[in-house]
Design a protein that fits this description.
The complex is a heterodimer of chains A (299) and B (367).
Chain A: H1 2-5, E1 12-16, H2 18-26, E2 41-45, E3 48-53, E4 57-60, E5 63-65, E6 69-74, E7 78-81, H3 87-95, H4 117-131, E8 134-136, H5 140-147, H6 166-179, E9 208-220, E10 227-240, E11 245-248, E12 268-269, E13 273-275, H7 282-297
Parallel strand pairs in A: 4-9, 9-12
Antiparallel strand pairs in A: 1-2, 2-7, 3-6, 4-5, 7-13, 8-13, 9-10, 10-11
Chain B: H1 4-20, H2 23-35, E1 38-40, E2 62-75, E3 82-88, E4 97-100, E5 104-111, E6 122-123, E7 142-149, E8 154-159, H3 166-171, E9 175-181, E10 186-187, E11 193-194, E12 198-207, H4 223-235, E13 241-244, E14 257-260, E15 264-271, E16 278-280, E17 285-289, E18 299-302, E19 311-318, E20 323-329, H5 332-336, E21 341-347
Parallel strand pairs in B: 1-2, 2-5, 4-9, 12-15, 14-21
Antiparallel strand pairs in B: 2-3, 5-7, 6-8, 8-9, 10-11, 12-13, 15-19, 16-20, 17-18, 17-19, 20-21
The complex binds copper (II) ion.
Copper (II) ion is lined by residues 86, 117, 119, 160, 162, 169, 174 of chain B.
Chain lengths: 299, 367
């Protein structure tokens, strides 16, 4: 069964965690019918270093400036769900009274959509309890790391003119037009958008994902490197997908409205990362799985 | 061959003519009209308007237009919601026809055999015969030509008006605009000439798309199948979509309207069925003919203007500041949630005197 065929391949390893084992064994017979909540398939993205445009709005000398880039180091393997949380998975939380019903679209093995940041947080809480593990939304940096070559930061204006603020508005409007992204509102079955180089599925498809990173407005110091002041607004969180954008915590439909200028997310969903207690080697991890399996099934 | 239908329509024409004008006068006028110069105009789809002179060049003429009626499914939003559309010339709204006061507008209306429905046209700019509706009833496979004299200036709605089904045809897309310009061009309230550098034609429509038991918009295989359900939604008077130019987002993104600082833009706004209130966010209406009729002096410096359902209005604005402007129906629920939003992108130099961000957003000082 899955554990035997488990392969850990360098940077991108598909891992079935203990809960998934429970699910697969459930079909063996009625004695396991009270199986625990199935854990999601995850991918372990190897540690890495990358240059990252910071999220938020940045000002220098009273003018908007492009987001500063910084070196981000992910020092431990990042264990992130390979797929976005599915409608079925989410429904389980709803049926147990721990989540509010989503304004979901589509059916079958589709990602849950029509969920707010608050819904995603509720799911993470419930899922952590149900699995006995710590699951949470990824930060912006973690998401960018997992998204790898499919990551796209904010659609920033190509032009900034201190004398003419309209240059920025017009050039970012034009950039969005040039991206020629057509609305694509119907969620597709999970995996439809393929996997990226890290083995993570459906990055930058038609479901944008909530992160745990708050929106911030940052005034840069004169050197353009350090923040002079930074005001965080955690009523708004970073949302990632085809592009990075920001949404109020209670929003479930990112495309509501066509008035505001800006590329709206087709759908809002999420995936979680599994918090690992401390740096764990692959050998440790395999040992843990063996232990869990023993505990649960006496195998 | 002389079919019963042709005979019937012929009889109606004769009756209407006889009722409207004495025979002698009619003959004399017909001879006069035959002597007038004729001009054939090719229509263009909105938001654009066919080329035209603002000040009439020469005397009255007969201006010929042809429109083909197209019944077709039309996707009206990003979710793929489909309207069983009925259109003049394939677009919602139908194209704008521009003539001058005293000209004769002559329209040939073609209803191809592939269509399901009979149609006609009621010109609010025309006088008599239900605006021409009584003389233009065409079944699939027929065409008709109507001429009317443009006796009043202004922007006027036209729409389909088949007996018993008028509102359905109108809210399925069959409306458009005629603009009759004064021969000497537009004037402001002091009688001074005003001109536009550009004209855009925004037709606003509201749609009533039926939903299934799960709340999803229904799709229909034919117009006939959609009729009963659609009528039920229409009777509730709550539209599911309120859009410009036939579709949510038809005038945004790569289809946004464009202008330059210093350019004077005429925006004609028509709504054949329901009241609306255009507003240019960040701009104004320098001169606005709210009712659309140029014999009345324009209102000045409006923030929002009112377009009565069943009319078209005209607003003139000279852009003073560059940027991205939203042009909306200022019932903002209809603009933002139901679709009635367009954009203008305007290039040019920023004017700090008109507006300046004195202090960028920053933490509130504490002391
Ligand atoms: Cu009709």
């Amino acid at each position: 069964m899955p554990v035997n065929t488990l392969t850990l391949i360098g940077s991108a390893a598909a891992i079935m965690t203990a809960g998934a084992v429970a699910l697969l064994n459930w079909t063996d017979g009625p004695k396991h019918s009270q199986a625990r909540t199935p854990a999601a398939i995850t991918v372990a993205a190897a540690p890495g270093l990358f240059s990252h445009a910071e999220p938020g709005e940045f000002l220098m000398n009273e003018r908007p400036v492009p987001a500063p880039r910084k070196r981000v180091a992910i020092s431990q393997p990042l264990e992130i769900m390979k797929y976005q949380v599915s409608l079925d998975e989410y429904e389980r939380c709803v049926s147990l009274g721990a989540c509010e019903a989503a304004d979901a679209e589509g059916s079958g093995d589709v990602p849950v959509t029509g969920v707010s940041y608050l819904d995603a947080e509720a799911y993470a809480r419930w899922y952590s309890e149900a699995t006995g593990e710590t699951w949470r939304l990824p930060t912006d940096e973690e998401w960018a790391h997992a998204a790898s070559e499919r990551f796209r930061s904010d659609i920033e204006p190509l032009e900034q003119d201190a004398q003419n603020p309209a240059r920025a508005w017009l050039s970012s409007y034009q950039r969005e037009v040039d991206l020629e992204r057509k609305a694509d509102p119907v969620p597709r079955s999970r995996g439809s958008f393929g996997v990226n180089s890290k083995g993570v599925a459906d990055i930058a498809g038609n479901v944008w994902e909530w992160t745990s990173t708050c929106y911030a407005r940052v005034t840069m110091a004169a050197d353009g490197k350090a923040a002079e002041t930074s005001i965080e607004n955690c009523g708004v969180h970073v949302v990632e997908g085809f592009h990075r954008t920001y949404m109020s915590n209670f929003i479930r439909d990112g495309k509501s409205g066509g008035c505001a200028v800006g590329l709206p997310p087709d759908n809002l969903g999420f995936r979680l990362v599994r918090e690992r207690p401390a740096a764990m080697t692959i050998a440790d991890f395999q040992a843990q799985i063996r232990r869990l399996r023993r505990e649960m099934f006496g195998a | 061959m002389f079919t019963r239908r042709e005979a019937l329509i012929g009889a109606v024409v004769a009756a209407a003519a006889a009722a409207a004008i004495p025979a002698f006068a009619a003959q004399a006028q017909t001879a006069d009209i035959a002597a007038l110069p004729r001009q054939k105009v090719s229509l263009v789809a909105p938001p654009f308007v066919h080329e035209h002179d603002q000040v009439a060049n020469g005397g009255p003429k007969v201006v010929e237009f042809t429109m083909k009626i197209e019944e077709k499914p039309i996707v009206i939003d990003d979710e793929g919601t489909t309207l069983r559309g009925m259109t003049f010339n394939g677009s919602i709204p139908g194209p704008m026809m521009v003539v001058h006061e005293g000209d004769y507008l002559e329209l040939t209306l073609v209803n191809p055999e592939t269509n399901e429905m009979p149609h006609n046209i009621d010109f609010h700019a025309a006088t008599g015969a239900l605006g021409g509706g009584a003389l233009t009833h065409v079944n699939p496979g027929e065409q008709v030509t109507l001429r009317f004299k443009a006796t009043r200036t202004g922007t006027f709605v036209y729409h389909c008006a088949p007996e018993g089904m008028i509102p359905w045809h109108v809210v399925s897309g069959m409306s458009g605009t005629v603009m009759v310009l004064p021969r000497e061009g537009l004037k402001n309230e002091k009688g001074e000439p005003v001109r536009y550098d550009k004209i855009f034609y925004v037709g606003e429509n509201e749609f009533y798309i039926p939903r299934d038991e799960n709340g999803k918009y229904k799709k229909y295989e034919s117009l006939g199948e959609s009729y009963d359900d659609t009528l039920k939604v229409m009777r509730g008077l709550i539209p599911t979509h309120v859009v410009f130019n036939g579709k949510v987002g038809s005038l945004t993104g790569k289809n946004a309207m464009t202008a330059k600082v210093g350019e004077t833009v005429m925006i004609v706004h028509s709504q054949a069925n329901r009241d609306t209130r255009p507003h240019l966010i960040g701009g104004h209406g320098d001169y606005v003919w709210e009712e659309g009729k140029f014999a009345n002096p324009p209102a000045k410096d409006l923030e929002t203007w009112f377009i009565r359902g069943g009319s078209a209005g005209a607003a003139l604005y000279t852009f003073l500041q560059p940027g991205v402007y939203a042009y909306v129906n200022h019932n903002l629920i209809e603009a933002v949630e139901l679709g009635a939003t367009a954009h203008f992108t305007v290039e040019g130099e920023w004017n700090d005197d008109l507006m300046k961000q004195v202090d960028a957003p920053r933490p509130i000082p504490m002391n």
